[in-house]
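Lab notes, practical 5.
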Amino acid sequence: MNEEWIHIKNAILESANEKIGEQRKERIQDWYDEECQIAMKEKNDARKKCLNKETRKNREEYEEKRKIATKLCRRKKREMWNKKIEEIKGANIKKM
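Output from the prediction step:
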C-alpha cells in the first residue's frame, strides 16, 4: 500500500512539473545594498569575536553593531516601501 502511494505521488508531482513547472517566490530586496552588506558583515564578525572570547567589551561591541545593522536595514526597507507606494500613487493619478 505504501509503495503504491509513493508511486502515485511521484507520478502526480512529475506531471505537474512538466505542465506547470517550478516557480520560485522572488524576494523583494531592492533595499539590501552594499551598505547593508558591510553592516551585516561587521555585525557577524563582532558576533564571532564575542562567541570566541566573551568579554564585556566584545559583548557591548556586538550589541552596538547589531543595533546599527538592524536600524540601517529597517530604514532602507522603509524607504523602499515608501518609494513603491509613491510610484503606485503616481500611476493611479495618471490613470484618472
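Observations recorded by the TA: The radius of gyration is 24 Å. Residues 30-96 form one domain.
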